[in-house]
Amino acid sequence: MTRNPQTGSEFSLAHLLDDIRDHVRPAFGRGKVADYIPELAGVNPRKFGMAVATLEGEDIGTGDCDEPFSLQSITKLFALILALNRGGDEVWMRVGKEPSGTPFNHLAILEAEQGAPRNPFVNAGALAVTDYLMGKTADVAGLMAGFIRFSGAVEGGAINDAVAASEITTAYKNRAIANILRAHETIDNEPNAVVDAYCRQCALEFSVRDLARAALPLAASGYSPRAGETIMAPRLVRRVNAVMMTCGMYESTGSFAYRVGLPAKSGVGGGIVAVAPGRGTIAVWSPELDRVGNSLVGTIALELFAQNSGWSIL
Ligand code: GLN
User: Whole-angstrom Cα distance, residue 67 to residue 249?
Assistant: First the structure.
């Protein structure tokens, strides 16, 4: 049993997740699966998986919680952690920490602000972080897959080459962003090489159960209860959670904070991972997206979770 810190009552995480799975069903059909990456268009829109990993080492899942899905922008979170771990504050010379209030692949604001990305979670900032990691390794996606596996002590996960190739051939907007970044010397590598590395990273696939496990150090001051090691400094955890809270859900970040009250990061594969500091992590996957590109059903599920568990930082 788990205690609701707001009401003091005890509840079962397993029952709560099953209840949420049943409750969200009427919301299917209201969103739209991402189709600008052709390979993602074929995903079954009715998939739903949700998992919680707790600091006590419990992990509970419901629905399609063990099925790998495309992490997409959720990888920006792990890229940021890797970059901060390796370079510390140097990373903030390339990207800012302010919400953008614009779509994740917005172009005009980047040009107006001399190629300085607002934050590491819009595509411009993520491309700059990937470029930074390319200075440390020849295989950013491989490094990230290894880091996710180590952090969560999980074995699954793979790069979906078809998804990567599909995005690489249609990444017109990301190429434009990378070219602006290069023109302003925000990135060091050739724009096309950075876009390729970024698309490969986005094509990583893990299940929500593995994702919740891998993100757990963000709820535990940097300690991975599963790996039995500290994987990031506590001061970095606070910073990453702050950027998630203010920038993690694109131009819905404010309404997501209002509805859920937890730092979170979404991806157009339909995944969202949320952090309840001192308690645990929650990951959800449902491919239909709302108009800004966040999982529509996933957001409802997290709202129900926060309401019923009392796990909210607000
Ligand atoms: N690979 C995707 C893109 O750059 C990721 C976007 C997302 O998940 N929001 O368009």
Answer: 23
From CA 31, how far away is CA 51, in angstroms rounded? 21
Q: Which residues contact 214 (CB under 8 A, 6 or more apart)?
A: 78, 148, 149, 151, 152, 154, 206
Catalytic residue among 43, 47, 76, 240: 76
pTM of the model: 0.97
Cα angle 270, 199, 243 (rounded to 5 degrees) comes to: 60
Q: Which of 70, 73, 100, 312 is catalytic?
A: 73
What is the residue whose two structure tokens read 């997740």? 17
pLDDT confidence band for 10 (50 / 70 / 90): very high
Give the H or E element holding residue 200: helix 191-202
* pLDDT recorded at residue 301: 98
Condensed to tens digits (0 to 9), the pLDDT of residues 12-68 reads: 999 999 999 999 999 999 999 999 999 999 999 999 999 999 999 899 999 999 999
Q: Which atom of ligand 1 is nearest to the CA of 123?
A: 4
For the question of residue 268 being annotated catalytic, the response is: yes
Ligand 1: residues within 6 Å at CB?
A: 72-73, 104-105, 123, 167, 174, 202, 267-268, 293
- pLDDT category, 138, cuts 50, 70, 90? very high
Q: State the distance from the centre of ligand 1 to the C-alpha of 267, rounded, in angstroms.
A: 6
CB-CB contact of 209 with 282 (8 Å): no
- What's the whole-number average pLDDT of the chain? 96
Catalytic residue among 163, 194, 243, 268: 268
Ligand 1 centroid from CA 64, angstroms? 22
Q: Domain residues of the chain, as ranges?
A: 2-309
Which among 252, 262, 257 has a CA at the least distance from the CA of 296? 252
For domain 2-309, say whether CATH 3.30.43.10 is its number.
no
Q: How far is the CA of 133 from the centre of ligand 1 (A)?
A: 18
Cα of 18 from ligand 1 centre, angstroms: 29
